[in-house]
Amino acid sequence: MKFDLDTAWKDTTGLLSRNLGLLAVLAGVFFFLPYAGFMIAVPEMGTMQSAQASGDFEVVMAAVTELYLEYWWVFLLLALIQGVGLLGMLALVRRRANPTVGEALATGARSVPSYIAAQLLQTALIVIVATLLLTVGALTGLNALAVLGGIIAFVITCYIVTKLSLAAPVIAIEGQLNPVKALQRSWSLTRGNSMRLFLFYLLLTVAFIVVSAVVSLVLGLVFALAGEQGALLGEAIVSGLLNAVMIVLMVCVMAAVHTQFSRLTSAPQPDAED
Q1: What are φ and ψ of residue 117, in 5° steps?
Q2: How far is Cα 131 from Cα 149, in angstroms, rounded to an integer?
Q3: Contact partners, residue 149, CB within 8 Å, separation at least 6
């Protein structure tokens, strides 16, 4: 049986409508406030935005590196806080025992080390594969092969991310705290449906980028009327708001996709290749 995009979207909107109030509050606490607060409190974010506006890749990378080196502990703290929030929200919308908010957040706190470990393993896999492909292309000395290696690395990265995208719901909903087994479970669940799932993610991503760009532009112009400080404050608020909205949508998407794949794999079916 194949993954159905229409069913996934209907399940996503169903979860969203039934849990919007709670998810909005949790997203505000765990994502909007930390993200917006960080942007307001860290003056280097202004330097980052200037670097991005320059369009110079080296300048952007230098600004990113400097920011992470100086505030690595803040990013680590944000990762822990937002990891608890993400996993807690997943547990809240799909746990069969209908947990309370406190129980769901406790699940998130217990699960966050496994989630971070799974993310690190996924990142390591992508870095190793991409580095090998790019290195092989570069060693040939041929620009065409180097470009081809980069394209292949990008395609494989998208494939790996898609295949392992259900690790978080496996951890939060199924309670699998072994990060390796969680990644294996995600890979197994998506078997035979990788292209359909990637297309679903791609459509949602493009739609969200378009909508968020329009919202950022309109609200940015409004806040710009209040002067430079007002513009900076407005950008922090808008960015934090869009981040929270994205997480709420992502939680419902992951929960809906996980539920559908769990149904598809619960009955015997013929072998399928990605």
Answers
A1: -60, -40
A2: 10
A3: 133, 134, 136, 137, 138
Q: Which two tokens stand for residue 260?
A: 């559908």
Per the document, the length of the chain is 274
pTM summary value: 0.86
DSSP string, 145-173: HHHHHHHHHHHHHHHHHHHTTTHHHHHHH
| Residue 270: band (very low, low, confident or very high) from pLDDT cuts 50, 70, 90 | very low
Question: Which is it for the CA torsion 200, 205, 211, 214, positive or negative?
Answer: negative
As to burial, measured by CB atoms within 10 angstroms (0-12 exposed, 13-18 middle, 19+ buried), residue 183 is: buried
Residue 225: Cβ-neighbour burial (10 angstroms; 0-12, 13-18, 19+): exposed
Amino acid at 101: V
DSSP string, 33-77: HHHHHHHHH-THHHHHHHHHHHT-HHHHHHHHHHHHHHSHHHHHH
Q: Which of 27, 2, 39, 46 is nearest to 228 (CA)?
A: 46
Tens of pLDDT along 130-139? Answer: 899 888 877 7
Q: Are 171 and 148 in contact (CB under 8 A)?
A: no
